[in-house]
Amino acid sequence: MGCTLGIDIGTYQSKGVLVDETGRVLAEARRDHRMIVPRPGWAEHRAEEDWWADFVHITRALIAEAGVAPGEIAAVACSAIGPCMLPVDAAGRPLMNAVLYGVDTRAAAEIEELTGEIGAERILARCGNALTSQAVGPKILWLKRNRPEIFAAAAKVMTSTSYLVMKLTGECVIDHYTAANFAPLYDVARRDWCDDLAPDIIPLERLPRLMWSAEIAGHVNDAAARETGLAAGTPVTCGTIDAAAEAVSVGVAAPGEMMLMYGSTIFVIEVTAERVRDARLWYAPWLFPDRHAAMAGLATSGTLTHWFRDHFARDLPRDEAFARLAAEAETTPPGAGGLLCMPYFSGERTPLHDPKARGAFFGLDLTHTRGHLYRALLEGIAFATAHVLETYAEAGATPERIFAVGGGVQNTLWLQATSDAAGVMQRIRARTLGASYGDAFLAALAAGAVDEGDIARWNPEARRVEPRDLPAYRALYPLFKALYVQTRDIAHALEHLADGGTAPA
C-alpha cells in the first residue's frame, strides 16, 4: 500500500504523522500557532495563516523526514478543531478569522432567541442537540446580524476540516459527525441539512456537501501539490473533527466504548448503539452509518494549565514549568488543603451549558502555596470531568471501557485525580499520538488497506489507571457542584459588568 498521511489542526498546535500499513510511524511533525482572543468570550483562528500554513509545513516536513516519494502516499486524511464557523468567498478565500467551537460564546443572544422561537424540545428532537455555544447555526446568525457585509459576500460557510479539504481538492464537503453541530440546520433522523426550523439563518446551498468521514472527497489538485509536495491525484478523505479522529486512534469503535481526551479542553465521546437523548450532552451520527455518538466537553482544561503556567510560573524555565509545577503540587495532599477551583474560565460547556460561568479559587488562606493552587486547578478539572461522567450515567449511557488520550495523559497527577474523582478505570494505548494517528488510520481504511478492527493491532493497550477511594474527594465533590449553584448569579452579574453593564439593583 505504501503509507498514509494524517494531519490534525488543534487549538494551539498542529500535528502530523506518516504511517505504514502496519501502523508503524515513519515520521512525526508539529507546528505551533495561537488562539486569538479579541475580547472576552471570543476565540478565533486565521484559516490561511494557521490551518493551511500548518498543513503545508507539516506535510513537507513529514515527506522529508520519512524519505518517501510523494507517490508512495496512498491517501490523506485530516481533522481539525470543530465545529468552527468560517465564511469564504466564491474563490474559497476566508472573509474573516474563523470563529472557534464552544469556547467562543459570542452568539449567546442568538442561542437564547432561537431556542425561544423554535422550542427546546423541538430542537432536541430534530437536531439531537440543544442550542449551546457549540452550535454553529447561532454563530452564522450572529454573522448575518453583526457582519452583514461579510455574510453577503460569503459563497460558503464551512468548518475547519472543510477548509483544508477544499484547499487540497477544490471540493466543499463536511462529514455528518461535524454537520450535526450545525444545529438547528441539520436533521439527525434524515441525516441531511434542514431549514424549516430556522429558515432565515442561511440558504442551505451555502453549506458544504455532506459525506461520511472515511469517504474519498476528492484528489489533490495541481495547486495543492505544488504547495504541499504531495503528488497530484492523491486521494483525500472527507475528514472529521479532531476529537473523533482521536477516538479512532485509541480504538473507540464499539457501543459502550468511550474516549476521554485530555487536550486544550476535555472532550468525551462514547459510541452507542442507539441515539442518546439528553439535552446536557451532544449527539451526532458516528463516523460510520450504523452507529451513534454521545459527546461532552469542558470549556477549559489544558488551556487552563497553560494560563496558570504563563501567569504564575514565569520564574520557571518554560520547557520545565509543567513538571516543576506538578512536583510542587505533589507535595500537597489530595484536596489541596481545602482549596477548590471552579475551572469555568471560558464559561462552561457540558453539563452546565453556561457561557456566563466564571472561574474561581475558593477557600484560600495564607498557608496556601503555588503548589496548592496548581493541585486545586487539576482537581477542579477532574471534578468537572466527574460531573460529565455522572451525566452520562444519568442519561443511561454508563461507559463499559474508557480510553484516555491526549497530551494530558503525560500529566500523571491530572490523570490519577480524574480516576479518583470519577471512580473510573482508564485504559491507555501504547501510542497516544492523538488525532493525526487516527487520521492516518482513516486514510488507510479509505484506501482499503485495513479493516476497522485493525486499530487494536496498530495500537495495543499499554497500561491502566485504577481509581483510589479518597475521603478528601468524596467530601469535596458535592461542595464543588454546590459552589457553582451558589455563586452562579454573582458570576453572571460579574460577566455583565465586564461587558460594560451596570450592577443589578
From TrEMBL:
Domain Carbohydrate kinase FGGY C-terminal: 259-447
Domain of life: Bacteria
Family membership: Belongs to the FGGY kinase family.
Keyword GTP-binding: no
One Pfam family hit: FGGY_N
Coiled coil: none
Domain Carbohydrate kinase FGGY N-terminal residues, every copy: 4-247
GO biological process terms on file: carbohydrate metabolic process
Keywords: Kinase, Transferase
GO molecular function, one term: kinase activity
Record organism: Meinhardsimonia xiamenensis
InterPro entries in the cross-refs: ATPase_NBD, Carb_kinase_FGGY, Carb_kinase_FGGY_CS, FGGY_C, FGGY_Carb_Kinase, FGGY_N
Name of the protein: Xylulokinase
